[in-house]
Specification:
mainly alpha; elongated; 2 domains; about 120 residues
Amino acid sequence: MKKVFWIAGLAIGVAAIVVCLLNRKDQECAGCAKAQNSEEKEEFPTEDTALTCDAPVAQETVYEGMKESAVETMYYRHKAAAAAVGDSVEAIRENVKVSKDTSEAIDAVSAELDKMMSED
């Protein structure tokens, strides 16, 4: 029974491969025929058709407007971001202000540490 299933599966696989190869060969032959027909009827474009643009002029102006508006919005976003960062830096500096007494105490401790290090 197992042999029957194995043989049937193998036959189906081989049949599928043969069908694929035959279809591929038919498609290649059809492509060759089309290529031969197109070679016979090949026309060279005239100067007028070669210089024409695919996109209408109206679309080009729309795209240019879109580029300019995108650049403008990026500029204003960067300008706003720079202002926000500047404000944040100012706020941080205000929050970190150290009084003169504290800075003098830190300088005194630093001087004592320098003396200790120089003695060693």
